[in-house]
Amino acid sequence: MKRSLFHKMESCCSLWIGLRSTMLRGVAHSAKDIFTLLSARSQYCNLGLNFPSVWTKVTNRSILIHSTYTTDTKSREENKKTIESLYRLSVDIKKIRRLKEWVLLQDAAYVKEIADILQEMGADETTVANILERCPEAILHTPAEINSQRALWQLVCQNEKQLIKLIERFPESFFTTEYHENQKANILFFQKLGLKNNIITRFLTSAPNIFYNPVEKNKNMIETLQKNYLSLGGSDANMKIWILKLLSQNPFVLLNTPTAIQENLEFLQKNYFTDHEVLQLLSKLKGFIFQLTPTTMQKSMLFSKNVFKCSDEELKHLVLKCPALLYYSVPVLEERLEGLLKEGISVAQIRETPMVLELTTQIVQYRIKKLSASGYDIKSGTLESLNGTKKDFEVNYGKIQSKKERPIFNPVAPINIED
Questions:
Q1: What is the three-class DSSP state of 2?
Q2: Nearest-angstrom CA–CA distance, 152 and 159
Q3: Per-residue pLDDT tens for 171-223?
Q4: DSSP string of 185-215?
Q5: How far is 286 from 290, CA to CA, in rounded Å?
Q6: Using CA atoms, how far apart are residues 252 and 223, in angstroms rounded to an integer?
Q7: pTM of the full structure
Q8: Which of 76, 97, 160 is nearest to 123 (CA)?
Q9: How far apart (Å, rounded) are the C-alpha atoms in residues 42 and 38?
């Protein structure tokens, strides 16, 4: 039992890491998309983000499924009928044994029935096998449960072709049927709120936990956000657009509590940020500020103040210029600062262009090396050349290259000949 539970928990942990990486795929290199850096594992460990409800629900779900079907695995044998049915579908049994052996021990399984439903939606044999290998517990759900889930996801999917592609990529999300009523109520709520179906679909696959909440909790969080937006000077006319944009960028904001939101906003106000500036930060931070705590923000700001030797007012302007100074934990900021200093970059240069701290040390080293190969001296030049997304950097690098290759004379200018 303990061994099986450990394997299930291990698989659950892998799922959670995958969920984060999918939702927040791509490392941001500029202020406008900095907060997709939440996918970085080191940050997730160091920032002290307030995601207890996410982990609790994923963990509880794993234990629930496992305990529902498993008793004493040592005294049980694999279900031969299940094994034979999976073999006929060309499913890799060894993979299931290695990761989720407990599924094969259950007396009741619906291998053929689930495979038939998937094939009805357009899945070929290879796709069915891939789905069952990645999420073998799917065969433990009844056909009625899966058909109900199928009808639910069709509320936001264009057609079954799109649906089967989503199931293949995110089988765990689709085969979570324990919160069916909550999922349905939340889908209808988000549609009424004005979120487009393609956004809701993205939430279902990459942030499914927000659908496990009772719809009343999500409504309460939306009302809290709206109330704070208006209290900070936001207009009624722009409120709906602001809320929809915030949710699109960061649906995990719904996993927070009204208390956490209030505490973080009050912290900013106590640190002399005006209401207008707080609204600016909320937009730049894409709501991720609510996953921070006053304690972590205070430590990050104090670190920056000591490094740059600036006043409270100067620090505030640096934070508005580069929210990373507020967002990243001290260990992350310290590591990136040390990486820049080792490359010969001065603190004065970093203070002038603090956005460079949005970049990982590896990215900085790569870009400096590439610029140096083109004859650009980063120590005496501006750090602006390092900044931005990968695309931004390549554009800047191209300009530097073109200047280097440009003729030192004007080929169309008249030639002066002295007699």
A1: helix
A2: 12
A3: 999 999 999 999 999 999 999 999 999 999 999 999 999 999 999 999 999 99
A4: HHHHHHHHHT--HHHHHHHHHH-THHHHS-H
A5: 9
A6: 15
A7: 0.72
A8: 160
A9: 9
